[in-house]
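In response to the reviewer comment on reproducibility (Comment 2.3), we provide here a single inverse folding case reported in full, input and output, so that an independent group could reproduce the run without further information from us. The structure tokens appear first.
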């Protein structure tokens, strides 16, 4: 066993092992309760979480609203019900041990309302709130009002400094820790800035040391930092333990908990994890949030990549070399391409990609008639799962839109995440994963398809492996 000493998290000494929150419905009350029962920190996702009927089965989230705004209100109600339900399950299964955290995404729909609703409906059951995907200034005040610790998810010391100076200094006593999420190695949405090269990962140690230095300027010497993203074998992080420069450190595991008995993902998904190889996880910018995200390269991702490659610029009138007309849309109104791109466009259409869809950037993409129909249907069926969505152009503002045209180069994230979380095909849906998920295939712990319980996984992590 590595000399892993308990640290204070959300008011209790626990092992510095944290389950990473994964929505939609991928880290839930069962997985979170099991981590807490093992003396760690369990985290359930409150992003469109499932709630259950009297038989204990998830209630399908169907939408009757005729407008986006009506469906948005239905989604918010589902999320609050689901968060409360998962908190109760986690509390029961924890046996009063460990700590239980709830994970939310700031750029998801109505996060403030959902936080208030779940924390009110599950008082005393949730010990901490983790929040990323944006700059969650308001999460501190909301958590503090319920007497709950908060844990911002950031990817740089600069981001934390901005959060502290603008809002967190008012609620410093409730700052339970800071989650440093490596923007190159973590799964799901990543906080990679425009100045950072997505192809060149940086060593996390100096970035976390800089974060600690910044925190010390604000008197946060003993506030834990959670290292998230790229953590697999703790023996590889031994120099981080009892390290005076870094201070109290916990390690957050998002990908490894996917392959446990308590993990709610499908058997097909679990089996696929065991086959992944290095390079199978793809850092891309297809998400309707606009953030980079890390996902398994499969048919779903390949189709998005190909869709984006079948793209040409256009002008509405003949100008600056855009002289080759192309009729588009139901009425066949012409737009103008360069002669070279007109030749490319014809090749796309000859290959069966006959539908040209306009993007907000004055480009066209070419897709099959069936795919065009599916894209338009998904855009029309939008239920407002994000605060702003570039795919459908929904936004939470009074107008209900981003002010830009919908972007067919992206996809409905709610649809695909709900699908894969509830047994949908692993090749036909978005499958988030951290970049070291290929270790499932090589780690002897998972030999012969072994799937551990959460407690067995925690024991394995504590051994250094």
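Designed residues, in position order:
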């Amino acid at each position: 066993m590595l000399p892993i000493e308990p640290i204070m998290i959300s008011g209790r000494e626990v092992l510095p092992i944290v389950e990473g929150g994964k929505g939609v419905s991928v880290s839930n009350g069962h997985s979170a309760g099991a981590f807490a029962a093992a003396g760690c920190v369990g985290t359930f996702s409150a992003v469109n979480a499932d709630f259950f009927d009297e038989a204990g089965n998830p209630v399908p989230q169907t939408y009757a609203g005729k407008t986006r705004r009506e469906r948005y209100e239905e989604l918010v109600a589902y999320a609050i019900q689901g968060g409360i339900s998962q908190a109760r399950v986690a509390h029961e299964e924890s046996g009063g041990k460990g700590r239980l955290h709830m994970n939310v995404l700031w750029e998801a729909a109505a996060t403030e309302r959902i936080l208030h609703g779940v924390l009110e409906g599950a008082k005393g059951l949730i010990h901490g709130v983790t929040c990323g995907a944006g700059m969650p200034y308001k999460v501190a005040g909301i958590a503090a009002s319920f007497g709950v610790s908060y844990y911002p998810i950031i990817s740089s010391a600069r981001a934390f400094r901005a959060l502290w100076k603008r809002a967190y200094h008012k609620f410093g006593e409730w700052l339970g820790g800071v989650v440093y999420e490596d923007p190159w190695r973590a799964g799901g949405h990543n906080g990679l800035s425009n100045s950072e090269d997505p192809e060149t990962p940086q060593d996390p140690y100096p970035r976390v040391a800089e974060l600690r230095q910044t925190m010390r300027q604000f008197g946060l010497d003993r506030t834990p930092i959670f290292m998230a993203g790229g953590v697999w074998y703790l023996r590889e992080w031994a120099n981080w333990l009892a390290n005076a420069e870094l201070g109290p450190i916990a390690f957050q595991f998002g990908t490894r908990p996917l392959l446990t008995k308590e993990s709610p993902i499908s058997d097909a998904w679990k089996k696929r994890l065991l086959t992944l190889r290095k390079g199978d996880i793809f850092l891309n910018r297809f998400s309707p949030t606009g953030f980079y995200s890390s996902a398994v390269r499969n048919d779903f991702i390949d189709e998005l990549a190909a869709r984006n490659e079948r793209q040409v610029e256009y002008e509405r009138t003949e100008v600056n070399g855009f002289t080759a007309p192309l009729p588009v849309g139901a009425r066949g109104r012409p737009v103008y391409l360069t002669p070279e791109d007109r030749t490319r466009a014809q090749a796309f259409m000859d290959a069966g990609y006959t539908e040209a869809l306009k993007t907000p950037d004055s480009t066209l993409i070419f897709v099959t008639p069936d795919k065009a129909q599916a894209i338009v249907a998904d855009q029309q069926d939008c239920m407002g799962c994000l605060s702003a969505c570039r795919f459908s152009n929904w936004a939470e503002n009074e107008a209900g839109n981003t002010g830009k045209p919908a972007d067919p180069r992206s996809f409905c994230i709610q649809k695909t995440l709900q699908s894969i979380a509830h047994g949908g095909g692993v090749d036909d849906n978005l499958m988030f994963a951290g970049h070291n998920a290929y270790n499932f295939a090589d780690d002897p712990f998972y030999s012969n398809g072994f799937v551990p319980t959460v407690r067995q996984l925690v024991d394995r992590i504590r051994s250094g492996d």
